[in-house]
Amino acid sequence: METIGSSVPYTWNIPLVGLSILIAVAASFSSFGFSERLSTAAKGRRISWLTVGALSMGFGIWSMHYIGMLAFQMPVPVVYHIGTVALSLLAGIFASGAALWTMQRPHLRSADLLLGSLFMGGGIATMHYTGMAAMRSQAMHHYNLWLFALSGVVAFGFSALALHIAFLARQHQRQSFLRTLSAAVIMGIGIASMHYTGMEAARFTLMSGTVDTSGSIGISSLGTAAIIGTTILVLAAALASISVSRYLSEEKRVKQIMASELEESSLLRSAILDSAASSIIATDLHGTIASVNKATETMLGFSARELIGMKSMTDLHDPQEIAHQALQFSREFRENLQPGFDVLSFRARKGNCDQREWTYIRRDGSRLPVSLSVTALRDPSGRLRGFLGIASDITEQKRAEERLRHMALHDVLTGLPNRALLREQARFAIDSAQRNRRQVALALIDLDNFKRINDSLGHHAGDHVLRCVAQRLTESARSSDLVARMGGDEFVILMPEADHPHGTAEMARRITHILSRPIHVDGNEFCVTPSIGITCYPADGADLDNLLRKADYAMYRAKDQGRNTVQIYTPSMEIDSSNRFVLESELREACLRKEFLVMYQPVFDSGSGEITGVEALVRWRRRDGTLVAPNDFIPLAEETGLIVEIGEFVFRTACRDWKHLSRAAGRPLRLAINLSPRQFRDEHLTAMILQALRENDVDPHYLEVEVTEGALIGDWDGAAEVLSRLREPGIHIAIDDFGIGYSGFAYLRHIAVDRLKIDRSFVGDIGHDIGNPALAGALIALARGLHISVTAEGVENENQLAFLQDQGCHEVQGFYLGRPMPVDESVSFFEKERHAASPEKQTAIATLRNLSFGRLASESR
């Protein structure tokens, strides 16, 4: 063929151009759908989706190409070589496969984008130019090199841009449709741009001769319609397939998501339940355990397999608790509950949340206190489906409560039960005794003179003594007995199994013996003695308060009997106690009204018979003029502390009267005043005495204070310090009632005293009892051996006076020589003694002088 030389004119069918672009966009859009299916399809189905997608997209691009070729209209007929057309279709399919392969990758790297763009752009260009090569007509074509190159660049550039946008569209699900459509438009425009740029690069020149059309076909209008229709159907089918697949995949994905969320929710619930510190047990309507969490396994020691299927949660609880609660529910709801009903879910079935404390029984048999809350499980329609039990371990709470209860019911110092626990146990003991017709005994124990220990050595010493006493009482009691501390130095022993009060009294006497053992504190030795009162149920009272009240009467009777004794309650004690209460009230009023008076008993020199001093003795004269004996109110005053006030009154009165008495006697007299144990321990004692002496201008050397051995026992060092303070200004010290104390006489080597006063009990039976004279003589000899003056009290007859004088007693005192008298009578008595003695007194003085002269004569011989 030869070139004619003229260019062939051509025109464009605009509708077909537009249709070609739409087909390119549709094909691109379908390709993105296939890429999405590829990314979500199972591994075995990806090849199928890639093949179908490549065929569908490739056919669409190829159709766009040939519709675009049909839109290019020249005045010469054009046919197409079938084999070459088929090759162009394969190139389009290859380009589509490259695009799909790139878009379905999970991560789009630069290398992947570059490679995919090259394959896709190159495939589209190959398809186009292969299709151009399939043209057979009188118009032969050649290409403008620059436009040809530009078409390749356009194909590559638009492919890269479209692939990138398509990948982003798949990654961003919220804007997936818009991004996919944008990518499809860009890719469609890119394909069309490459096609029409390539067409513009072609230059058609009319040729002479005959064209070889073998193996070629022409495309009629019907063929064009068939290509367009087939293309649309293929693309529609592809899009429909993608949509159906997407719908099915979406449904499957939703189901998978729901299943995953359900599984995650189940796992989350399971994780939450297993991470809970509380035991959680779910049961069905019948109470059978359906599920448990890890905490339940840990708490109870059972595995979940062992727990699930148990007929009831009650199998895990203390049977006695279950039975007790069932009885309570029967009473509360007045229902005749059937045996075996589920106690735990009883309230929950009635619509209430039941929360209370229970006791689980662990696998090893140990008990676990829990706080259990049981609620009903209902479905959305409100139907009851089961029950949920949530239990918290309250072991530490119970231990703390037990510690608090122990603190509330026990004495902090001794650890013994206190009054509250005693009351609780006494109620149980009395109830039991009432049912079994038994007796309950109660012993009230009060330590004698315990305050002296606290006052002399301090509370730490007193606390030590109380702890020792508590330990000894506990050791001496039976296992069934309860030893309690009431407070201060009072203890109680409750004996639920007492057969007879006298048997209880015998045990109380053993207690006095046990407590009599010395207690050592800070180098000091104490001998504690108790006064014990005993009462019994039902004879003496039906409750603890009555038993304690009457035991208190018996205990005070024990103190009145000399302390360190045991007394069983009798009704007469209550009368005595009432009298005692009245007496105490009157005594307090007497202190306010100054109803006391001081009487003076003279003391005589056994050698000369002269009055050497007086002893001040307090008396209580009621408003009606009657006198109360000292033994009736002094112990009560000592016990109540009123003795300190009374003692101060005696000191001030006696110091005021001293000048009158001394003036009447014609010489300064020695003034002797008793100090009670409580006075002796009073920290203001020395200051009070010195003030009384100063106010009345009395020389301290004329004052002699008398203390009993009982006031000194227990704290010799403290006693020595008090005596030293008294002796410092010149006050003399005398031991009153010498010989009847519990301490022995060793203390005389350590405590400086000026006089010993022999108790009247050693003098009273002289001439009647062969033992007492010897004892009196021994005491006098002891005093003389220690170079201590000695005075005998209670001289009531001549024989006693003679014996004492014969033994070398320095001074004597008693009714035989002079009775206690008020100050005015004492003044008169002393004045008469100074001027003229009575016949009786003359006889007594003569006896004293004769005995004295006889003793001196015998000593001189």
Automatic annotation (TrEMBL):
InterPro entries: Biofilm_reg_signaling (IPR052155), EAL_dom (IPR001633), EAL_sf (IPR035919), GGDEF_dom (IPR000160), MHYT_dom (IPR005330), Nucleotide_cyclase (IPR029787), PAC (IPR001610), PAS (IPR000014). Keywords: Membrane, Transmembrane, Transmembrane helix. GO terms for molecular function: catalytic activity. Residues 272-321 form the PAS domain. Residues 580-834 form the EAL domain. One of its GO terms (biological process) is regulation of DNA-templated transcription. Signal peptide: none annotated. It holds the Pfam family GGDEF. The chain crosses the membrane at residues 12-35, 47-72, 78-101, 113-131, 143-169, 176-197, 217-248. Residues 438-571 form the GGDEF domain. Residues 12-205 form the MHYT domain. The keyword Membrane applies. CDD domains: EAL, GGDEF, PAS. One of its GO terms (cellular component) is membrane. SMART domains: EAL (SM00052), GGDEF (SM00267), PAC (SM00086), PAS (SM00091). This is Bifunctional diguanylate cyclase/phosphodiesterase. The lineage of its organism: Bacteria, Pseudomonadati, Acidobacteriota, Terriglobia, Terriglobales.
